[in-house]
Here is the input.
Amino acid sequence: MLSIPRERSQAALARLGEEVCARWLMSHGYQILCKNYTCPIGEIDIIAKNDNTVVFVEVKTRTTCAIGTPEEAVTHSKQHRIRRVACYFLSVGSAVIEDSQALQCRFDVAAVTVDRQRRRAKIRWIVDAF
Here is the structure.
């Protein structure tokens, strides 16, 4: 569990989840290449690098699982869109990656559940989710 501030709006909650995940990645040796990478096709929450792997991370943050778990919100259409954005990034934005030809790619999902009362966040990291 990670300590978090009390925030109320959905956009603030999403930003909070992304920041918690970025901190988690860095603490586990990942290099953050981009946060909220946006292109004409869409957006990817976090793009990171670990050894020879570029990791495209979709972050879903919830305060409750009443409408489903955070990872259930990463639908097939969302996965398709993320793959297309990743291809765009690798073709256009790969200047931030050294020797991009030798890299592998992976798509992870970070499911974040926030407990606002206790000011804590719990992360379920799904490696190679799709």
Q: What stands out?
A: The chain has a mean pLDDT of 87. The chain has two helices and six strands. Residues 2-126 form a domain with the Trna Endonuclease; Chain: A, domain 1 fold (CATH 3.40.1350.10). Strands lie at 2-3, 31-38, 43-50, 53-62, 104-115, 120-126.
